[in-house]
Specification:
alpha+beta, two-stranded antiparallel ribbon
Length: about 170
């Protein structure tokens, strides 16, 4: 994203992470996002798991209901969302007649990194692991677990923009 200052004095914008939510947002099967048919070159970056962000001006009705209807739980861990090109006070300085890029980064918090989880997986027989993996894969196809950030962009005391970031884990 970018902010352009067309004025003759520098402006200081501030980003605020208002709320972080997580939970399942039901998605109708007929409206599930389809993979793009863009041809890509095979290379080193092809094996990466990062997905291209999709931008939309409006929330889908099921997303709006889940976010504002109280279907998602408040997340205590706000570290999964981070901002780049802002200072430690979440401020973005845009000099006169300049455009500045900024972004929001989502990083999935890896679960099960504690030593207790490692010991329990070592004791599980291989056949049981495969059966559990199949069950988990089927369950993951049915659900659409999301992390949601509600972000506010302000200039002085004026709110310029509120935006919602929905990161699907499916």
């Amino acid at each position: 994203m970018s902010i352009q200052n067309t004025g003759s004095c520098p402006l200081i914008f501030r980003l605020s992470l208002m709320d972080v939510l997580e939970g399942d947002i039901p998605r109708p099967r007929d409206k599930s996002p389809q993979r793009s048919s863009i041809k890509r070159r095979k290379g080193k970056a092809e094996s990466g798991k990062s997905a291209k962000a999709e931008f939309d001006d409006n929330l889908l009705p099921n997303e709006e209901l889940a976010i504002f209807g109280g279907n998602l739980k408040r997340s205590e861990d706000r570290s999964s969302f981070s901002f780049w090109n802002v200072d430690e006070n979440m401020q973005l300085l845009v000099l006169e007649r300049k455009t500045v890029e900024f972004g929001v980064r989502f990083q999935r918090v890896s679960e099960g990194k504690d030593s207790g989880a490692k010991e329990s997986t070592k004791a599980t027989p291989r056949v049981k692991k495969k059966a559990n993996a199949k069950k988990n894969a089927d369950k993951q196809k049915e659900t659409n677990y999301c992390h949601v950030a509600i972000v506010k962009l302000t200039l002085g005391s004026s709110t310029l923009l509120d935006f919602i970031i929905v990161c699907s884990m499916s």
